[in-house]
UniProtKB/TrEMBL annotation:
<dbReference type="InterPro" id="IPR035959">
    <property type="entry name" value="RutC-like_sf"/>
</dbReference>
<comment type="similarity">
    <text>Belongs to the RutC family.</text>
</comment>
<dbReference type="Pfam" id="PF01042">
    <property type="entry name" value="Ribonuc_L-PSP"/>
</dbReference>
<dbReference type="InterPro" id="IPR006175">
    <property type="entry name" value="YjgF/YER057c/UK114"/>
</dbReference>
<protein>
    <submittedName>
        <fullName>RidA family protein</fullName>
    </submittedName>
</protein>
Length: 130
């Protein structure tokens, strides 16, 4: 399957650092709920380790996308919720193993006071067009 997505960085807008400002395309809309670093049994992976949590989060996102008949090539937007923006470099390493870094999805990163459990450091939701 070849993605028909268009990635744009509009003139007059500062270049994105590792993300596209605009991603569009024809197809079916897929929304993936925020994923955290739980394994298949619901146990937290990587307590206190943002990199390990990010790896599990992206593995979970991949499984969710696959269930919807999608891949990371279809992702148009990622939203990151982190308890500390210092985790972003570790998250980017995990993300870059899954996305096409030449055509990255649009994304937003937000530091939050807390997520639903104090040991969960990262939550990521995805939107795709298949």
């Amino acid at each position: 399957m070849v993605s028909e997505l268009t990635h744009l960085n509009p003139e007059g807008v500062a270049p994105g650092n590792g993300y596209s400002h605009v991603v569009s395309g024809p197809g079916r809309w897929v929304a993936i709920s925020g994923q955290v670093a739980f394994d298949a049994e619901g146990k937290l992976v990587g307590e206190g380790d943002a990199g390990a949590q990010a790896q599990q989060v992206f593995a979970n996102l991949e499984r969710c996308l696959k269930a919807a008949g999608a891949t990371f090539a279809d992702v148009v937007k990622l939203n990151f919720f982190v308890t500390d923006v210092a985790y972003l470099p570790a998250i980017r390493v995990a993300r870059d193993a899954y996305v096409d870094t030449a055509k990255p999805p649009a994304s937003t990163a937000v530091q939050v006071v807390a997520l639903f459990r104090p040991d969960v450091l990262i939550e990521v939701e995805a939107y795709a067009v298949v």
